[in-house]
Write a structure and sequence with these properties.
β3, α5 and β4 form a beta-alpha-beta unit. The chain is α/β, with parallel strands linked by helices. It starts with a helix and ends with a helix. The chain has twelve helices and eight strands. An eight-stranded parallel beta barrel has the order 1-2-3-4-5-6-7-8, surrounded by seven helices. The protein binds 3-methyl-2-oxobutanoic acid. 3-methyl-2-oxobutanoic acid (KIV) binds next to β6.
């Protein structure tokens, strides 16, 4: 069954945990979808894990549309949420609506996600008014890494915690149907989750959130550049891949691959005539 804003809202009411993973291509989206994950996020983390940038600042609308469309083709039941990249919505409400519309029409997203609290509430209100579901993203918002001075846990002082509570309330009342909370103390995320009537999806925000999200290369051990404390490796696919690549080199070198079972046959009489 397709996951929609209604089924996710129902999950919060029934206290059923929501699962979300990132994907950036058709094949991975298909596997995640078949496993039964509720939501697939085409995160602008693709800047790091797919494109090798040191942050998400350089990611473009074209990047998000290209990868978003591939994921949408691979996802049958999971809701596909596509990130709005840096400077595609901060500049004006008009830009926000136009660019959210492009992600829906050109990438065939089911919803868009954007970073920020009270300062982007107007953008969220207008995108939702245009008929586009919005996931908000508060706390450690990676597009603001230069303002934070690094990937730092947010909301640790009383003033910062109050600001996050205000952000959560603002994005909910602007119409966001879910809120990603990233890099926030678990007890504060729990308080936000209790206060909101829409689901919260945590990443580095403890177990009390209504759901969890991880970057798939992180949870599969495929990205070694930087592993945050909140990442759990559910498999070591990176090691499995490296071992397979090494075996490939070995077998091509020794001539063990390709063997007869991987070759196409031709009538030997034809070959004789060609000699
Ligand atoms: O871009 C992304 O992958 C994200 C998640 C970390 C929530 O925004």
């Amino acid at each position: 069954m397709k996951n929609t804003v209604l089924t996710l809202q129902q999950a919060k009411i029934e206290k059923k945990k929501i699962t979300m993973l990132t994907a950036y291509d058709y094949s991975t989206a298909h596997l995640i979808d078949e496993a039964g994950v509720n939501m697939i996020l085409v995160g602008d983390s693709l800047g790091n894990v797919m494109l090798g940038y040191e942050d998400t600042v350089s990611v473009t609308m074209e990047d998000m549309i290209h990868h978003g469309a591939a994921v949408a083709r691979g996802a049958k039941n999971a809701m596909v949420v596509v990130d709005m990249p840096f400077m595609s919505y901060q500049t004006s409400v008009y830009d926000a609506v136009v660019n959210a519309g492009r992600l829906m029409k050109e990438a065939r997203a089911n919803a868009v996600k954007l970073e920020g609290g009270t300062e982007v509430a107007e953008q969220i209100r207008s995108i939702v008014a245009a008929g586009i579901p919005v996931v908000a993203h508060i706390g450690l918002t990676p597009q603001s890494v230069n303002v934070f001075g690094g990937h730092k846990v947010q909301g640790k002082t009383e003033a910062a915690a109050r600001k996050l509570l205000a952000d959560a309330a603002a994005v909910e009342s602007a119409g966001a149907f879910a809120v990603v909370i990233e890099g926030v103390p678990a007890k504060l995320a729990e308080l936000i989750t209790q206060r909101l009537s829409v689901p919260t999806i945590g990443i580095g925000a403890g177990a009390a959130c209504d759901g969890q999200v991880l970057v798939y290369q992180d949870m599969l051990g495929m990205y070694a550049d930087f592993t945050p404390k909140f990442v759990k490796k559910f498999a070591n696919v990176g090691e499995v891949m490296k071992a397979a690549f090494a075996r490939y080199i070995e077998e091509v070198g020794s001539g063990a691959f390709p063997s007869e079972e991987h070759c196409y046959a031709i009538d030997s009489e034809i070959i004789e005539k060609l000699r």
